Amino acid sequence: MTQAHQASKPSSDSVTLGSPTKGAHVWRGPDMATRQNEWLHVLTDVELADLKAAVAKVEARGLEILDISRDDFDLPVLGQTLAKMRRDLLKGRGFAVLRGVPVSHYDRRAAAIAIWGLGHHLGDDAVSQNGKGHVLGHVKDIGHDYAAPMSRGYQTSARLPYHTDYTDLAALLCLKSAKSGGLSSIVSSGAIFNELCETRPDLAEALTQKFYRTRWGEVGSDKPPYISVPVFNLHGGDAESAPGVATTYVRSAIRKAQLLPKTPRLSELQIEAMDAFDALAEDPSFHIDMDFQPGDLQVVNNHWTLHSRTSYEDHDDAKEKRHLMRLWLACSDGPPFPPAMTKEFEGLTNNGRPNGIHIPGVPFNAPLEAS
Q1: pLDDT one-digit tens code per residue, 189-210
Q2: Is residue 133 left, alpha or beta, with left meaning phi > 0 and alpha meaning psi from -120 to 50?
């Protein structure tokens, strides 16, 4: 029997569905493709020397990955570029790419030091990405079946639909690219919100209702196997993005939650709303495609930007297989978000930001290999 969910009621300081969200984070892909110089920064020789010196200094000190702080990773010149990137990520368009990290000259530990140090200039805290406490993640096909209820898409070579992650910023450093495929695509969730409000306000409203998602078995013993949170979370915004909408969406997790026996059922309108959401994200007039090159560091603001990946064919040589390192970063100066985004998730960091997938009692760790 289908169980419909009541639309969540916005608080008095929230915006209504009739108000478009505004700001630099509302964009269309074809326009962004012509403005690559605004969001793609190629490391200069001076910045590259900065990065190499910082990595070498950390290696000479023998610091463990988890012990490396921003102060340990001094970047006198590159730090200024990263500060601008951070502003663009949190107050501007919501995505950026840094090109030229010398991963071909790094072993695995040096590459981990590089992304960790760069990440701590772009964000404040690295949060756990799974139930194992991994604060340094690996996006690599390790043979999992994407269709399995407990499988995470990043552990497969399958196409990943547009989604967000459970943190303020997601950073991906490409170590090795695929033999073919594996194209990265991103889309502005604000542009999707505005389009649905204008053309199908009933579907936009449906996406403000609760959607149930699986936790992939990554839960504490006192928690249900699923979470519930709206796709579109309306809030009052701020001076730079008002009115505001924070988006959180993982359709594969919603679909897999429906396989759990006690999960409330989706309504037909909710399913239609997700279909419309996905169709807009897939529309070439909305998204932008990127080809990951080794040494590319892509960073997205999860509240405003959804990301996707095409399926890919990998190399036969295990040493050449597609491999991205990943950080989930919490930012103390991140954009406004409603309580529902953390109350049903894994709580808050010390700075009051979304805390990733955190299970009490599981220690943080930074593995150098995919698992």
Answers
A1: 999 999 999 999 999 999 999 9
A2: left
Mean pLDDT computed over 244-268: 91
Residue 367 belongs to a domain: no
Q: Are 155 and 141 in contact (CB under 8 A)?
A: yes
Number of domains in the chain: 1
Structure tokens at 367: 């593995």
Q: Calculate the alpha carbon distances from 338 to 270, 341, 343 in Å.
A: 21, 6, 9
pLDDT the model gives residue 149: 55
Q: Which residues of 227-255 are buried (b: 16+ CB within 10 A; e: fewer)?
A: bbbbbbbbbebeeebebbbbbbbbbbbbb
Residue 53 lies in a domain: yes
Distance CA 111, CA 60 (A): 15
Residue 100, number of CB atoms within 10 A of its CB: 17
Cis check: omega of the bond before 243, within 30 degrees of 0? yes
Q: Residue 179 in contact with residue 292, Cβ under 8 Å?
A: no
Which of 170, 165, 145 is closest to 155 using CA atoms?
Answer: 145
- pTM of this prediction exceeds 0.85: yes
* Banded pLDDT at 8 (limits 50, 70, 90): very low
Q: What is the CATH number of the domain that holds 127?
A: 3.60.130.10
Q: Cα(31)–Cα(114) distance, rounded to whole angstroms?
A: 31
Taking 3-state DSSP, the helix, strand and coil percentages for the chain, each rounded to the nearest 5, stand at 30, 20, 50
Residue 355 lies in a domain: no
Distance CA 337, CA 303 (A): 8
Range of the domain at 192: 29-343
Residue 5 domain-assigned? no
Residue 78 to residue 81: CA distance in whole angstroms: 5
